[in-house]
Amino acid sequence: MLARGLLLVVLVAILFPGAAGVASAHAGGLSSSSSEPRVLGIDPPVPGLDLRVVEFGARMRLDNGTGAPVVVEPLPGSQLSGLPTVAPGARAYWTDPRITMAAAGPRPDGDRVGWAIPLRVGDQVVTVRGEQHWPAPPSAALWWGAALTALVLPAAAGLIGAGRRWGRMVLASATGVVLLAHLVHVLGSAVVPEDRNIVAMVLSAAGYALLGWPLGAFGMVLTLRGRPAGPLLCCAAGGLFAIVIAPVDAFTLVDAVVPFAWGASLDRVLVALTLGGGLGVAAAGVALLRRGTVREEPAV
Where is the chain membrane-spanning (predicted)? Predict the structure, then answer.
């Protein structure tokens, strides 16, 4: 049974290498970043023209409340297409290359670098001025320590409690925590994109978690019922989340800007639980598989 458990975890890691790309649990292609853009002003001011940064810096949003079309001008000499022309009363989203270039540069002295986006409002030339800001990064030691703690606790409990009823309860509970953490992570990421279908965003963010969630849920039920397949499924689910799904989100633990609707710190907790907890569940599952059938606790 141990060999089967180890084989299943290895197969999960080998057969689904593309999951990291598909299962990026930040929906709509969003990812964490070390910097974020800010709009400082519009020069000259135009009544009814509103331009702001949305989706944690991923895109710009322009609301045209003027009576003229608004054209987002390309870079000088560029043939770049895809920059919008916004009709009166309309709204447009786009990723601006000037902001992308500012974000791609090294962290500057003062943690800020300016950028400008030229617009044409009817016949009037307008400039949107802003800056790229690098906030202080989180403590990498703190969050990697949290992930390590999430690994050690279920793994140690699984080793000590292997062959006992409370050991399988710990395994099932730890599996449930990993599943719930990743589900909340997906939901909090899926609501960030402003103009996307929420169901499509959940599916996009979930990726191979659509396999991992039911795999872990069945494993929890079977483990609590004392079935030998339960720890095997928990082990496979933990390996899938920790080895295949969660690593793509590991930068959340060290980046300052996280595209998550309910706060960066909460998202880091969820990623640490998924990444470290998944490994801990896999280790605890292997320990229960090695001990085989759960023995009865002695009567007191």
Answer: 141-162, 169-192, 198-222, 229-248, 268-289
> 177 and 286: one domain?
yes
Which residue bears the tokens 């080793």? 159
Residues in a beta bridge with 82: none
Whether residue 44 has a cis bond before it, omega within 30° of 0: yes
Residue 280 domain flag:
yes
Establish if 300 belongs to a structural domain: no
Do 126 and 170 belong together in one domain? no
Question: How many other CB atoms sit within 10 Å of the CB of residue 159?
Answer: 16
In a domain, 233, yes or no: yes
Reported as a single tens digit per residue, the pLDDT across 281-293 is 999 999 998 876 4
Q: Which residues pair with 118 in a beta bridge?
A: 127
Whether 297 maps to a domain, the answer reads: no
Give residue 244's Cα distance to chain centre: 13
Rounded to 5 degrees, what are φ and ψ at 93? Answer: -120, 145
**Residue 159 and residue 114 share a domain:** no
b or e along 172-191 (b: 16 or more beta carbons within 10 Å of the residue's beta carbon)? bebbbbbbebbbbbbbbbbb
